[in-house]
Structure formats: C-alpha cells, structure tokens
Amino acid sequence: MGHRADEGGDGVTTSRSRSKAGAGLKIERVWTTEGVHPYDEVSWERRDVVMTNWRDGSINFEQRGVEFPESWSVNAANIVTTKYFRGAVGTPEREWSLKQLIDRVVGTYRTAGEEYGYFASPADAEVFAHELTWMLLNQVFSFNSPVWFNVGTPSPQQVSACFILAVDDSMDSILDWYKEEGLIFKGGSGSGVNLSRIRSSRELLSSGGNASGPVSFMRGADASAGTIKSGGATRRAAKMVILDVDHPDIQEFVVTKAREEDKIRALRDAGFDMDLGGSDIVSVQYQNANNSVRVSDEFMSAVENGKGFDLRGRLDGSVIETVDAKNLFRSIAQAAWECADPGLQYDDTINDWHTCPETGRITASNPCSEYLHLDNSSCNLASLNLMKFLRADGGFEVEKFVKSVEFVITAMDISICFADFPTEKIGETSRAYRQLGIGYANLGALLMATGLPYDSDQGRSVAAAITSLMTGTAYRRSAELAGVVGPYDGYARNAEPHKRVMRKHAAANDEIKPTSPVATAIVREATKQWTQGNKIGDKFGWRNAQASVLAPTGTIGFMMDCDTTGVEPDLALVKFKKLVGGGSMQIVNQTVPRALRSLGYPEEQVEAIVEHIADHGHVVDAPGLKPEHYPVFDCAMGERTIAPMGHVRMMAAIQPFVSGAISKTVNMPEAATVEDVEKIYFEGWKLGLKALAIYRDNCKVGQPLSVAKSNKATEPAAVETAAAAPAAVEKVIEYRPVRKRLPKKRPSETVSFSVGGAEGYLTASSYPDDGLGEVFLKMSKQGSTLAGVMDAFSVAISIGLQYGVPLETFVSKFTNMRFEPAGMTDDPDVRMAASVMDYIFRRLALDFLPYERRAELGIFTASERAAQLRAEADAEAAAVTGVELTAMASSAPVEIPAKPEAVAQPAQEMADVAAAKPAPSVGSSTELLEAVIGKAADAPLCFTCGTKMRPAGSCYVCEGCGSTSGCS
C-alpha cells in the first residue's frame, strides 16, 4: 500500500511548507443558515432495509431501523445502507444513520483541511463542514464510492475511483501489473492500461524465440479480474485494455472479443448455458475488460485518403508490416459491430489537451474512458446533481452552482492530502499532480424538464455552457488553492503547456453560441470564471493538473435520486419505483410533467399525456401533445430513440470543456451496418472527441431473454402440465359466469355533459349494496343512428357489468380512446376528453371506483389534483428534495384527503396502491422497458441481486442494489 500523506510524501511535504505562507480560505455560507445545523433543517424517519432477490424471494440483506431524511427515496436509502454503511450488520459498530455516514466523511475532510492549512480560521472550517454536510444531505452532490467505502474507517483511506497503470516489456513488469490490478479491484476501483510497450508476437526474444505478444498476457489478467469482486462485496472488477493502432499485433487484438462471441454461439448451439450469468459463460475469455484502440491523426488521415499505414516493432521502431489503413479501420468497425469492442481513443487529440506533456504522454484511461492522464496515476471523482440548480421558472442557479463547485473542488483536493493509494508509484504521481474529476449527473433530466430536446442545438448549447462553467470555476478555485497551499509539484516543469491548455478551454468557451437567455447567462459567468482563473493561475499556478471528467455516476447517481446518469439522456419515460413499506410500481418519470408544464400545457392535458405514457411507454399520439414537442421526450431506448449522431454531437459540444473525457456509449439500433459504425468512429475524430464507444442493440449472444421470449420459453412446460392435469383430477368442472340482475327499484344518478360541444346524458344505476350495474347513454335524437349505437353500447356494457366484468377493466380499455367529438368538457373533474367514450368512463371511474383503483389508472378529481399541486409548491418553497414525491405526482397524488378532516401520508398512499396491485413481473426499469417495447435490452444481470442492470455511461448499474460494472 502506498505511504500515507503524513508519512512524508514529497507532494504533501511541499504543500505543508507552502501552506504556512498562505492566508487560508475564507468560507462564506451558501446553502446553510448560521446558528442552525443542517441536520435540524430536514425531517428524519426510521426505515427497515430488507433487500430480496425478486426472482426467488430470498433475502440478500437486512438492517432495520436505519435513519434517513423523509425526502430520500426508498432506492437511495437502500443503496446507501447496503453499500456505504460500515461495520458488521448486527454489531454495535454498524452504522445505522445517514448522519453517521456523512459525519464520518465530512469530519475527516475538515480535520485534514485544517491540518494542511486550507482554512483561514476554525470558523471557516466549520462553515465549510456545514456546507458540505448540507449539500450531501440534500443530494446536491456526491463523492465517488471509494470515499464512502473507506474515508474515516480503519481501512486504508483510498479515495480515488479511477487508476491508470503502466506495463513495460519485461516479465517483472507484467507480473506487477497483475498484482497492482488485483489491489485496485480489491479496494473498490477500476484501472486501465496500455499494453503497447510489450513487444509483439512477431518480434524476437533475447533467447531467439518469438515473444508471446500482449494479447496472450491479456488472458491471465482477464482470468484474475474475473475472480475478484471489488471491495470484497461491492462490484465486479472493472478494467480497460488499450493497444496502439501501430502495434504489430493490432489485428489480433481487434478481433479478440469478436472471436469469443463466435465461441459463445458454438457452445450455445452445443447445449451449454451461455447466457449472462450462466454456468458455462466463465469459459469465455476477455469478458472482464473494455478494449480500446488508440488511433493517431496519421492513421485517421490514412483512412480518409486511402493510404497505407506502418505497423512498427516495439524494440527499435522498425516497420514490421504496412497495411491498408481502410481495411484495418474496417476490421475495427466490424468487430465493434459484432460485439461492441473495441472502442476508439484519439491519441493526438488527447495529448493536445494534456497539461503535463513534459512529464510524459497520456497513453491510457480508466475503464470507462473518462480519466485520461499520466501512467501510474489516479483520479478522485465527485458529481453534482444538475436538477438541484434548476429553478421553478426554468432558470439556472448560476451563483449557487459556482459556489458549489468551489466547495466540491476544495474538498476533493483536501482528500489527496490524507489519501492512501494501492501502490507507491501511484501515490507518488497522484500527490505530485493531484488529478481531480468533478462532473455532473442528471443532464438528460435537466434538458427534458426545461422542454429542450437532447438532440438539438438548444440542448447542446445549455450543456456546453454548464460544462464550461463547471470546469472554468474548478480551475479558478484550483488557482486560488495554489495561492494558499501551493501549485502541484509537477507544475513548474509543465507551466507553459498547462497555461496553453487553459487558453484553449477559454477560447472554446468564446465559441459557444447561446440559443436562450438561460444559456446566455451561464456562458457570461463561464467567461468570467475562465478570465479570472487564468489571471490567478498566471500568478500562482494551479493546484491540480486536471479538474474535470464526466463519469457514469452509477451508484452515486442513485444516492442522489437522479433520473439520468452522467451526460446520458433518459433511458425511457417509464421506470420501476420502489415504495416505502415494500412493493414497487410503474411510474412515469418525474421530469415528464415538469417538461409539459414548461412547454405550456394546461394541467388537464398534462394528466392526459402522462396517462398515455403510462399505458404505452411513449408520447406518440398522446392526446393534445404537439408533434413538434415529441423530440423533447426522446430517450436512449423505446419507441422514439435518439439517433446515434445525436449522442456524438452532444459529446462534441461538451468535450472542449472537460479536462478528461466523457464516459458515454453511443447506442445504435440493431439494423445499423458496419458502415454506420465506421461513420460514427470517423465523425468522432473529426468533431474532436477524445474517446468513443458504440453499442449496437442485440450484438451480444450471451444475454438474458426478453420478457416475450421468456414467456415463449415456458410454453412447453405449460403444455406438459396441461397434459398431465387429467391424471391429477377425476372431474373438470367448467366455470360459467352468472348474471346478477338489478332489482326493480335501484339507486341511480344522471349527469349531463358536453364534450367538444356535443351534449348528452349519462345515467348510471347501482346495486343496493353498491357497485355499478347499469349504464344508459343518450345523445342525439331518438331514432337517429347515433342514438341507436349509444343504446346498443349501453346494453352491452350493462350486461357485461352484470356478468361480473370489473368496471376498471372497461375504464382501462375505453379511456384515452380518440375520436371526434373531443376537447373541452363542462365537467370540472375532467376538463379535457379525447372522445365521448374517454369522458364517460373517466366520469364513471370517479363516481364508482375507490381511490386506490383510480390511482392505478391515473384518474383523479379536481380537488385531488389541486392538493397535488399545493404539495409540490410547498415542497419547492421549503427547498426539500422532492425526487420521490414528484415522481409520485406522475402516478398518484402526493396529498389526497381521505376524509375532510384528515390527510393521508404520501408513503402510506403509495404503499396502499402497491398492495392493491398484482405483484409485478419485472424487477428493474430495464425489464419494465423490455415489457413495454417487447424486445430484449442488452444489459447484464446484477451479480448481487439478479436484476437486469441499466446503462450508466459506458458501464452498467443495478438500480436494485447499486452494484456497478464500472468505476464510479
């Protein structure tokens, strides 16, 4: 384990001596109130966290009586309890409250900040601790997972999530690589490595024999990674393997994983269990790493111009072979089309933005490709929740965002002072260059909530402005820190290239073309931050060689109750929601109604559109929704998906404002061609990206079956059971429904209505013991065709009710039916109707169905909707995190009067709804989406709880337990 900061590391010693001359930071309050502790500003509650495998009901984890704010969702509390609370369950040492977790981390940061001279006074240190506490408590930001795992515990205090290793052309170095990766995986992090220094299989050893080549050594590392769970029980190992495009073994490297897919097919056809998580899938190699090819401008130009390209030996740089660049590029695209690997990393672009070229080139990245810096280095990550800075009027809290970035960057830099590192070499480089990776989550939700399509000039303008403001502020604070505690140790030798990169960022900021007042205000502040930061940096230097990356934000995204991860758009418009007290339900994403209101839709139409989305999973043909607004609701998957180039263009818009790169996968449809992959990879280079990976739907063989396929797979068993049934019973009794007629005298009520100007009467009769049994509809004159149709329809519905067909069945079938007349009604509870049938069955539901049934169908009275709006307004005014409550607003009212004098609690209402619903047949949002669109999603099963994971950048995260396949 690398030495501790207080054991005399050079970087820390220098920082300590310099801090004596600095005045320390003066800290001003932003989020907190003087004299009030952040914990006293929120309401707390005790919960039981019981995690079960939804497939078999077995209990994976149980801790009762944990303490969380009422505003935190069930998922956030579950994941924090299972992942981040330390101590053995059932012992006094076990953490049981979020207060303990935050105090453990923030207390360590404050103590280290005071020890290393960051603050002007103890009062400033206390304000700093309170601000961090408030932001963490209210889900404004989160540190990366290793901070929560390790800081303030007896374990080594590893705070970094991302590591880059180095491997030289010697057996000792290769074996060290195996060992170092294992230590990193054990600590809950991921690593990347470039194997291009290892001589190729076409070169000679000193003994005269041929070398093994890097691909052969990949096998051993892959097998090692497959046996190690990061952090002991947190997640599987995550790693990246890179090879330069001019390496003589590049063609073998490119097809490694594609060949393994062929092996999977052959073994599957032979009867072996090759599904993800299957018993035989472990025999497949190279599955524990993401592979990337490091391409140069020379190679890409050769591809563009149809020229040859030289593959060079590792020992003396001599030309081993000259290949056709287009053919090699084609083979890269072909392999990616077949199995999603390899991705590309654009070497010259990466090193053109390198702040420390005098120390060494950037040769590799972490597993998710967002951290790009020196060999044997690490990056400490933290991410801001962008939705916390969105105002009710659609504006952006620019000033609070700037101050929040200051707090987070300061804390991240402090962590390097006390951090442990897995190896001595990584510790030395990390302390000397102090690489940080501030980023954000919820970009997709922010854009949708403000009514901006993800794939639009307006959306890209806002994203670029926010990213520029974040990185500009981070570097300005880094320059201020350099004035207080000194620049990073490697700054002196890299001062000129570092300044050059800062000027490149500032120049890129000047090229942003704001398309809205919001973007204009953000760009104006970003320009100010870059100008001030570069001026301060010219005087003092910078404290950090790197400031920002855009990570997947998998587990911490759930901790912050984010709807979208990193820079990703929404996965889908419907999601799987866990409820207080157990159970789950399908809801429409909470950003959808906010987006509709931002676009100017009245509340009645918002309700109707949300109901349509709940039923269909998309916005196509939603009642009253203008087609020009469809793109606002485009998602990564589903009926309306964002085009692949839409993802690439978003990455290109924000890349100039990120110190590192962007963890993101470009989703491509199954019908995409190899030529489409080539175009994406080529455009990524032209647009100035640093790294790019694609994923074509269903390109993997080893994947779970879709819901529809699973049903088909069970049909033989069902047939066999049916065939055996006669042997098990002597007599089969056929069930026949019995008609229950209404008595001669029955209670009834008549409602007059008007739909789109067409008037009519609805008479509904009930059984004496309650329950609708008869419906009469009158429209138009007696003897007309319409009157006859309505009479016949009334008789059919009435007979169905009397034979026991539930009213909710009719309601679910006839609501949202669209035909003329349609439009405004004279009913205050149903202001808009898609048709007469839509109105009639909404009215019947309101009159005869209990609240629990109506909540499932999304049908509410005017008073119920008003109560919902009041609750939302109160929540916003109190600045309380409303992710769970607002999400509920898409499916059920937050506050519904059960009696005139009583108000039901939101959690209890939701639990009642869950109890009334049938048990769901899915266990995650990905599986819910599969059920909606009727096809499989290529996501792995979680190794911890068995549910299907969801994409998070170029990795995957389980929304059931928080496990990730990446390094955030």
Main traits of this protein?
968 residues, three-stranded antiparallel beta sheet, 29 strands, alpha+beta, ten-stranded mixed beta sheet, disordered N terminus
What would your notes on this structure say?
This protein is an alpha+beta fold. It has a domain at 749-848. It contains 33 helices and 29 strands. Strands 3, 4, 5, 8, 9, 12, 15, 16, 19 and 20 form a ten-stranded mixed beta sheet that branches. It has a three-stranded antiparallel beta sheet with strand order 21-22-23. Strand 26 and strand 27 form a beta hairpin. The chain starts with 9 loop residues before the first helix and ends in an 11-residue tail after the last strand. Residues 1-21, 229-235, 702-734 and 879-920 have low confidence and may be disordered.
Quick description:
α13 (about 400-420) crosses α16 (about 455-485). The chain has a domain at about 750-850. The chain is an alpha+beta fold and about 950 residues long.
Give the integer mean of the pLDDT values: 84
Share of residues in helices: 40-55%
Strands, total number? 29
Low-confidence sequence ranges: 1-21, 229-235, 702-734, 879-920
